[in-house]
Hints:
Keywords: Coiled coil. The protein is mainly α. The protein has helices at residues 9-35, 39-64.
Amino acid sequence: MAITLKLTEDEAEMLVDALEVDLEGYVEAAKEARGNNKRDDVATFTEAAERIMALKKKIEALIED
């Protein structure tokens, strides 16, 4: 299911900023899990970080248009 939102550029930038903070948290969690040898957690956190990064890039591309 696709969702259509109408946002101002400022609102889109706020989403990008929030995603950046969330991304940093998942990257740090993956590093910590790697250090604790928790492979399942590393995979979960890495996947979440990748999905957040993809969404962040998608929104940034719309802002730049």
